[in-house]
Design brief:
By secondary structure, this protein is an alpha/beta fold. Helix content is 48%, strand content 16%.
């Protein structure tokens, strides 16, 4: 074989290797893209709806089990704090699917002011949020394919003050799933402050200064200071707007003790052992003390989970949590959480039957 022929063979070999490598990369990318698409498809059928009957219309998503005919039970989602849209940036969809497997539809809405929805969620009190929730329940009871006798609430964090109040005020609420709720707003705030300081290994001096600032803020809230008065007195305004100050002033005395004690429906309490936002021990003790009727309270506790019922090692890693949120969203949650809610809903129907 001539030298030129040998060079040609080598060049062809390199080209072939390059094309095979490129083709393999394309196949991997297409396969990965297909996997991501598959992981983000759910056995639910979503419909954009407008919930009427409350202070203002709500832009909502009604998700039904795919391929079924109903009538379905319904879980009305009650958001925690912050400007959340109906899907909570898709975070809710694995939960909707788990509930659909139990034969339940789900209803969730953009908070007022989010996605151009009417109103402003920062203008709301806890009672306003309870009224909004009950308006959604009343609306849902009239919808085709929804069983009006199997409607309950799911809610996380701040919803822990909303749901017991709503359930106490309406016999139409048949169950409550409370995820990482607190009982007392002020105790929760102090716990959160100290837990975050411990987590970042703050010095005793830093801790004392942070507690003193918190005490000054609380005194201003108790005095009903305006935002301008608070700012003029040297209050820390980083990240704090006048609307947020008004929201905190309106709601800082929230306490769910009496409403939880009045619950007469099945309650599933879900808690994370690594929660720095809410004192899980305090919440569990309160719910066990306040819900005295045997068989009503069901507690799911996950020792390694955060406030979001996500494993702590995943939530602490921005890379891992982002990857799972995109590529395998069901795996973002602590194992047992989605199945636990599905089993709770299934047990309600067995109890009813």
């Amino acid at each position: 074989m001539k030298v030129n022929d040998m060079v040609g063979v080598k060049m062809f070999g390199r080209r072939r290797w390059l094309w095979v490598s490129l083709l393999s990369a394309v196949v991997l990318l297409v396969g990965a893209g297909g996997w991501v698409v598959y992981q983000n498809e759910y056995d639910i059928t979503e419909e954009r709806v407008t919930v009427t009957g409350g202070k203002q219309p709500l832009q909502a998503v009604l998700a039904r089990p795919a391929g079924g005919h109903g009538p379905y039970g319904l879980v009305v989602f009650v958001h925690g704090d912050g400007p959340m849209d109906a899907t909570h940036d898709t975070f809710y969809r694995p939960m909707w699917e788990a509930m659909a497997k139990a034969g339940y539809a789900t209803l969730s809405w953009d908070k007022p002011g989010v996605n151009n929805a009417p109103g402003n969620w920062l203008d709301q009190s806890i009672q306003d949020r309870a009224d909004e929730t009950l308006a959604a329940v009343r609306w849902a009871r009239t919808q085709p394919g929804i069983d009006p006798d199997r409607i309950g609430l799911w809610g996380a964090s701040q919803a822990g003050w909303v749901m017991p109040k709503a359930a106490r005020q309406s016999p139409d609420v048949k169950f409550v799933i409370a995820v990482a709720p607190a009982v007392n707003w002020l105790r929760q705030g102090r716990y959160n402050l100290l837990a975050e300081l411990r987590q970042r290994h703050a010095s005793p001096e830093e801790t004392a200064a942070a507690v003193a600032r918190s005490d000054r803020d609380l005194a201003a809230l108790r005095a009903s200071d305006t935002f301008e008065q608070y700012r003029a007195a040297g209050g820390g305004t980083e990240g704090l707007t006048p609307d947020r100050w008004a929201f905190n002033k309106r709601n800082h005395l929230a306490d769910a003790t009496e409403d939880v004690a009045a619950l007469r429906v099945p309650v599933q309490l879900v808690l994370g052992g690594q929660d720095v936002n809410v004192d899980s021990d305090d919440t569990e003790a309160a719910y066990r003390r306040l819900i005295g009727t045997p068989g009503l309270l069901h507690v799911l506790r996950f020792p390694d989970s955060t406030h979001n019922i996500v494993p702590k090692d995943i939530e602490d890693s921005e890379l891992r949590s982002t990857f799972l949120a995109i590529a395998a969203p069901r795996s973002l949650f602590t194992p047992g959480y989605l199945d636990g809610m599905r089993n709770f809903l299934t047990s309600l129907d067995h109890r009813k039957g």
